[in-house]
Design a protein that fits this description.
This protein has about 300 residues and is of the alpha+beta class. It is built from 10 helices and 12 strands. It is globular, with a radius of gyration of 19 Å. Bound molecules: cytidine-5'-monophosphate.
Length: about 300
């Protein structure tokens, strides 16, 4: 009889995301807003390596140009919270030494921390042999943050509720993105607060969006794999408050849109700006034009898979 040795290190990977459509409804009693969003997972990944240890610890490294100084390595780190939640839920008594290698911008509105949490849940479940199963991992994901379930499932999906109630959406082909990263991150709660304040100030003029819905044209464009059609439908209610907090983003949008982008959008709560390009050649050209403006730029394609174990 052969026995299978327990793994000593587990390597997992989860993607960042772009909200190609994000409508924000009213603030709920739990402090969250009702959302209707269309997520696309893109080819910027967070890699997590997990090893057995007595305590739960985390170390963080990153691709060149990604500043990890703002990432906490104590109990505030979402990966540490993910490991702790799985241990508490399953009664597992040991720990884990986590190493995160980031390529998703920190505090950039692309769900990097959420990807860390999703990859960590999967890594710890595999390393510890807790075997809780996909449905339970998804349920735990939702307790860690609104975007974590999507980092787990990946692909293309519509998110409602806080953004954590997912239904898969059909998508064809590959979309080409060019991402302009910002030097300074934006705090997600602050961007939502800015939106609320704006809506309060203009309460008389703005119709309350009680039940936000994803625009049908966006879903059709994703289904058809049609970049020009998707460009027409890109929408983000958090864009105006993000621009208010970082006015320079308006110039970044302008530079991209006048250099061949089909359209540009602030990603999630920002400040990363995502430009949609017609094809790989247009994406390369756009990257060059943005770099000439001294912006830090990376390319990505989507949709890509969600959290998975990587065989090294
Ligand atoms: O769930 P997550 O930790 O990513 O959310 C960060 C913050 O963003 C929340 O504390 C809340 O202020 C805001 N948020 C919101 N409505 C959502 C998602 C996030 O107000 N649907």
């Amino acid at each position: 009889m052969t026995s299978v040795a327990a793994p000593t290190v587990v390597h997992t990977r989860a993607p960042g995301k772009i909200n190609v459509f994000l409508a924000v409804g009213d603030l709920q009693d739990d402090g969250y807003h009702e959302l209707a969003t269309a997520y696309q997972a893109v080819s910027l990944y967070e890699d997590v390596r997990a090893r057995h240890a007595d305590e739960i610890t985390v170390e963080v490294s990153a691709a060149p140009g990604i500043d990890v100084r703002g990432v906490p390595t104590d109990d505030r780190n979402l990966a540490v919270r993910a490991a702790r939640l799985l241990a508490e839920t399953t009664g597992y008594r040991g720990g884990v030494a986590l190493h995160i290698d980031k390529t998703v911008p920190v505090a950039g509105g692309m769900g990097g921390g959420s990807a860390d949490a999703a990859a960590t849940l999967l890594a710890c479940d595999t390393l510890w042999g807790t075997g809780v199963g996909r449905d339970e991992l998804l349920r735990l994901s939702a307790q860690l943050g609104a975007d974590v379930p999507f980092a787990f499932t990946g692909g293309t999906a519509v998110g409602t509720g806080r953004g954590d109630e997912l239904s898969p959406a059909l998508a064809k082909g590959q979309f080409q993105w060019v991402l302009a990263l910002a030097d300074v991150g934006l705090s997600t709660p602050q961007v939502y607060r800015e939106l609320d304040e704006h809506r309060r100030r203009h309460a008389g003029e703005i119709r309350s969006v009680r039940q936000p819905v994803v625009d049908n044209g966006v879903l059709q464009a994703l289904r058809a794999g049609d970049a020009a059609f998707l460009a027409d439908g890109l929408h983000n209610d958090l864009q105006a408050p993000a621009l208010h907090l970082q006015p320079r983003l308006a110039e970044v949008l302008e530079v991209g849109e006048s250099n061949g982008a089909l359209a540009g959008i602030v990603s999630g709560s920002g400040p990363t700006v995502a430009f949609l390009a017609a094809d790989p050649d247009a994406a390369l050209e756009l990257r060059g034009a943005l770099r000439a403006e001294r912006l830090q730029v990376v390319r990505a394609t989507g949709p890509v898979h969600g959290a998975r174990v990587v065989a090294d």
